[in-house]
Amino acid sequence: MAALRTGQPDDPTVSTVGIRVNDEMSELTVDNRTSLLDALREHLGLTGAKKGCDHGQCGACTVLIDGRRANSCLQLAVMVDGQDVTTIEGLGAAEDLHPVQRAFLDRDAYQCGYCTPGQICSAVGAIAEAGAGWPSAVTPADSLGIEGTAGLDASEVRERMSGNLCRCAAYVNIVPAVLDAAREVSA
Amino acid sequence: MTSIPLTSPQGAPSDTSSAADGRIGENALRPDGTLKVTGEFAYASDLWMDEMVWGTTVRSPHPHARIVSIDIGPALATPGVYAVLTAEDVPGANAVGLEHEDQPVLAETVVRYKGEPVAIVAADHPEIARQAAKKVVVEYDVLEAVTDARAALDPASVQLRPSGNVVRHLKVRKGEELPTAAVVVSLDFEVGMQDQAFLGPESGLAVPAEDGGVDLYVATQWLHVDQRQVCSALGLPPEKVRLSLSGVGGAFGGREDLSMHVHACLLAMHTNKPVKMVYNREESFYGHVHRHPATMSYEFGAEPDGMLVYGRAEILFDGGAYASSTGAVVGNGGTLGLGPYRFPNVHIDCYGVYTNNPPCGAMRGFGCVQAAFAHEALMDALAERVGVSPAAIRKLNGVREGDVNITGQVIDSAAPCEELVQILLDMPLPAERSGADLLSLPGGVANSTHGEGVVRGVGYALTYKNVGFSEGFDDYSTARVRLQVIGGEAVASVHTAAAEVGQGLITVEQQICRTELGVGRVVVHPKNTQVGSGGSTSASRQTYVTGGAVKAACEAVRARVLAAAAQVCGHTADDLALDGGKVVARSGEVVLDLAELLGDAELFADEGVEETVEWRHRPTEAVDPETGQGNAHVQYAFSAHRAVVDVDVDLGLVKVVALDTAQDVGKAINPDAVLGQIQGGSTQGMGLALMEEIVVKDGHIMNPSFTDYLIPTILDTPPMLIKILEYADPHAPYGVRGVGEPPTISSGPAVAAAIRQATGKALRRVPIRPEHITGT
User: Was domain A5-91 assigned CATH 3.40.50.300?
Assistant: First the structure.
């Protein structure tokens, strides 16, 4: 697919950046103000990440940057020059689903699905964070951190997933889906 | 004139196929599920054509003003801009609307709300379009705005329409004119403006066609009513305006009216290029109708034991600048506004008025949500006055099958009010709050309390809702079903125009085909206007009405197949059925292989057997204009909620600890999907009770963003115990009863009741804000 029109490479308002997206190096020339979300959607044709608000309020655009989750609408493409970006398209395909994708299917943890790519990327990031022992706001303050993914419970999942809105409110099913996936990822 | 290549956009809808198991009553998986979890599912905002340009909208900054002049020159001169269009460029009728064609496509002489479209711009880049839109110079003569619905009702107020400010006034009168009762309770209640807040903003792509027509790919709830309006505005016949449903990122009523539909088509036809329009979040708050805010005055009279004698209500809906579906919302508010209770005597006046506020229309629960807050608060007040429990007052007065309701209609299928309430009573309550876990208190990780001011409350609500379109509307759906051999296998395909918006309709369509035709693989064709109307995806009606149409079309196909089978196998058609890809006798004997039968060239053509059926539910009637009496509705759906809350009475913070519910669904075609609807609906109702309000000041929306318009997060959403009853409605296909809206109606009033119980405060307005609780 063709990209949105941009200026010439010698134009100071545009930059050429190299981003490794889903294990594939992409070089693209973008207006300096282009968000990572727009770069993904409108320059690379990766429309899995969604634009729900473009202000970091809804989480539908969540992707993984060097393995850590981020709202791609709040990143400029030029900020991630040289970094690894994983989008929902890079997590798993139909015949080879990521455990989080499988768990969302099995638990019916979505309805319209618009927030789902962001929810899934966010869950992958959250499970990795727990695996690395990172505490959340509900992890007991007297502990040294969460005891890996085994320390995840419903309360931890709700806290760690609270940046991703779901207007269909599939939340009741998202919690067990993330817990299922956490068990599988750690197993 | 350059010709447009006849190619589909990227992201155009395609067949959805699945061979998975799943007949009715089973938890069949969604056929679009894998696409949705892999990011492959294309929403309207994902549509793309390489040669496309981008459209944007110039909107009024004033709630009410006369347009003195519009200068498009500077905008049109902007490099990259292809077109700037105003009302002058609308070739057909510059008037659209669901019930009344009272809304201009682009404002002509007057703007009637802030955010009303005045001009549209197409450019080769979305940001160029946005910048050019700022250069459209509109000179306004600001007029006095009517922004208070009560004031609009006053004949001395500015009259916004030649017909006056009243869109509809519905009177319901039953029994004695001035009944008296031993116990009288009354209250006033106010409900704020709620937004559907679907996460996928309004979006679509219009592609000009060589025949002088246009193809529109759009996220919507009702393709054919969109088509009717687009045709009228463009001055084109239906065959030249073809609509296809693109991926829908939530709807909840907010996509029943037009948004960018005509605008994109106008720009596409003017530029002869495909035009994409995508609203941003702020624009989305201006770009669709909202739930009507309401002010209500209620009075119930009862015997000393609490048995209701009469109900009086005045309900006032602020319809905003354009009628949208205000008339039907008034219909629901009036005919259903006293709740599912037995009233010998009734006096209701329900109004919907024009103002210069944002237009209001359909949202999940449609007129019943607002009224439910009032009638449920009043039932609690009555219970307290007569000294019985909230559950007992509802069990005593709840309607039963065979009762005549307030519009004189016999409730002729299950009305299990008493049982729904009893189920809630029998459900376990959540554990008492333990002092140890501060994070579980209201305020959560903000650590705002150690529990000293935290009080628990429990509240109940019992409500009902009409299913399907009412008051004599010709409510129908169309289904085309085909059975044919593909790759040696008997395959069913189903084509309807009924919108899948995430609720799972296409799963239900597949389940019905599998059940009726005994096949595994079912192909669901894209939803478009190449088949007859499926009606609206609203009013909890699609499983009932489009489900009924698919069932009927399957039956017609099956009758032809079995008649042919009877010719070759010696059984009578009546003795045959389809199951497991076979023709089987009632005895269980496998008689024929279905694929072989369908492949018999002497019996069937290559394309197999196809039938198209237009299916209607039993008709409803318009109500009497003076008394509101009549068989207005086709079906009623009942639900009850129990909310448990912890309230920090010092800070006014509320945590919903549990939100338990019981609902009669007639027949759960897909139990998992039913649960999803109940969970989602319950959460949206809770949102209205606690946090969701579009704050409108002097006609201006003060909070058009997700920072300031709050919707429940995963942290706000409590555990839910859900009990589903399945009392088949004998009049409905498979006995189904609409599912999607009832939980949105009963959950909010239960939350409000729980907070009242915890705080002892009257709390006669929702959303309940911290300052209402603290009184500060």
Answer: no
